[in-house]
Amino acid sequence: MTTLALLLTACEIPNLVFDNVLDVNDSDVPGISFNPGVAETSVGGTATVKIYVMEVDNLGGVYAQIQFDYTRLTVTSVAAGTFFGGAAVSAPIFIQENDGIGTLDINTFYMGAGNGVSGTGDIATIVFTANTSGDTFLNFSDYTQMADADGNIITIQSKARGMVVAK
After folding, report:
1. Cohesin domain: which residues (predicted)?
2. Overall number of domains in the chain
3. Are 119 and 64 in contact (CB under 8 A)?
4. Paired strand residues for 121
5. Domain of 50: which CATH number?
6. Residue (of 45, 52, 42) closest to 20 by Cα position
7. Would you say the C-alpha torsion 164, 65, 57, 94 has a positive or negative sign?
8. pLDDT tens-digit profile of 5-26?
9. Contact yes or no for 53/123 (Cβ under 8 A)
């Protein structure tokens, strides 16, 4: 009996944290998210986040409108991701930053032959500069859309928001 009591008290159940924003078992798909979910920096420093599409079929293009607190963050740069990278022609990316409103519009699409691209991957990389300390949420607006190679809207099942923490 002593051995059983010792065995039961010696075993601890680990407290696991499941916070991977790209975990398709934890999200409704197809979806769109920021990775990392929380990016940390210092005031005056930069934070890099990527926009990921998750478990999408035949993706032809994405329009992502990101909302953020423009008094806390400044967009430093935006670059195309690797998701559409299999095309003979690089995926174009068009951006528009709306200063004074706190929105960033990103349009990118597949330029390859045949159907679109399926799976999970990054479509853009954004670098922000932190203007002040604090937590700033990154949200996808209701205008964010995905379309297949024929131009049909793909219903986005989940939009995971991100955060930039400046200390």
Report:
1. 36-156
2. 1
3. no
4. 53
5. 2.60.40.680
6. 52
7. negative
8. 544 454 555 554 445 455 545 6
9. yes
Cβ(47)–Cβ(130) under 8 Å?
yes
Short-list 138, 154, 134, CA closest to 146: 154
Q: What are phi and psi of 164, to 5 degrees?
A: -115, 125
Task: Give the residue carrying structure tokens 């990527």.
Answer: 50
Q: For 69-90, how does the pLDDT look when each residue is reduced to its tens digit (9 = 90+)? A: 999 999 999 999 999 986 656 7
- Give pLDDT, residue 11: 55
Give the Å distances, CA to CA, from 69 to 98, 161, 163. Answer: 12, 13, 11
Residue type, 131: N
> Residues 113-141: pLDDT tens digits?
778 999 999 999 999 999 999 999 999 99
Q: Would you state the structure tokens that stand for residue 3, as one six-digit string? A: 């051995």
Q: How far apart are CA 35 and CA 37, in angstroms?
A: 5
> How many Cβ atoms sit within 10 Å of the Cβ of residue 80?
18
- pLDDT > 90: what percent of the chain? 72
Find the domain containing 123 and state its range.
2-166
